[in-house]
């Protein structure tokens, strides 16, 4: 019997922010459609990450070809 491919549960492509409650440190997880994962911790970093990423757009695979 072959080993089935494992899918990470609870993480879907996109930007997920949690810890926005008062007194908590916000944490943002960005899972790119290419599989790249990035985490930002702290409100400034979370805001920067949220401003930088475009959900559904992968900046990694297109790094070589800039489209102005
Ligand atoms: Zn990517």
TrEMBL record:
Domain of life from the UniProt record: Bacteria
Protein name: Uncharacterized protein
Native species: Streptomyces citrinus
Lineage of producing organism: Bacteria, Bacillati, Actinomycetota, Actinomycetes, Kitasatosporales
């Amino acid at each position: 019997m072959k080993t089935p491919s494992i899918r990470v549960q609870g993480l879907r492509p996109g930007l997920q922010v949690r810890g926005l409650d008062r007194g908590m440190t916000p944490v943002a997880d960005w899972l790119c459609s290419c599989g790249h994962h990035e985490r930002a911790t702290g409100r400034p970093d979370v805001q920067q990450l949220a401003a930088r990423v475009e959900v559904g757009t992968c900046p990694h695979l297109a790094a070589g070809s800039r489209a102005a």
